[in-house]
Amino acid sequence: MITVTFLIDPLLKPLGNSNEWELVDNFTVRIEEDGKPVEIVTVPRGFTTDLASVPRLPGAYLLFANRARRSAILHDYLYSLHRPRKWADAVFDAAMKNEVSFLPRFFMWLGVRIGGGAYYEDVTSQPPLNNQGEAP
Hints:
- It is a single chain.
- By secondary structure, the protein is α+β, with helices and mostly antiparallel strands.
- It has one domain.
- Helices cover 37% and strands 21% of the residues.
- The strands form two sheets. It has a three-stranded antiparallel beta sheet. A three-stranded antiparallel beta sheet has the order 2-3-6, covered by helices on one side.
- Helix 2 runs antiparallel to helix 3 (85-96).
- The longest helix is centred in the last third of the chain and has 14 residues, at 102-115.
- It is globular, with a radius of gyration of 14 Å.
């Protein structure tokens, strides 16, 4: 079983009029599997995310928009690193246990399993980062 602990909360700023957000400072989480530490993940300052991409369908948007923001940032970052997709989606599900109840969590996880493949394949969406974790 995977567990995720948010060690530092994310600080975000909007980017223009789009649905993109930029991390103002590093955002750090600890991932454990079966009670054993797996890794500390630090999403670097300057990373951009669309948070939880929810289709603009009235029912879906009303139920799932603006939820699980920390989990969505972590998930977007794991995808950008091209970590194994199934594992990244499982981490997303585990992280959401800290933020939302079962039903929204299930449908958000299902959404990334069904629709996340296109984003996962687009690994060029983020600029390379320098040694300080910043975009050039």
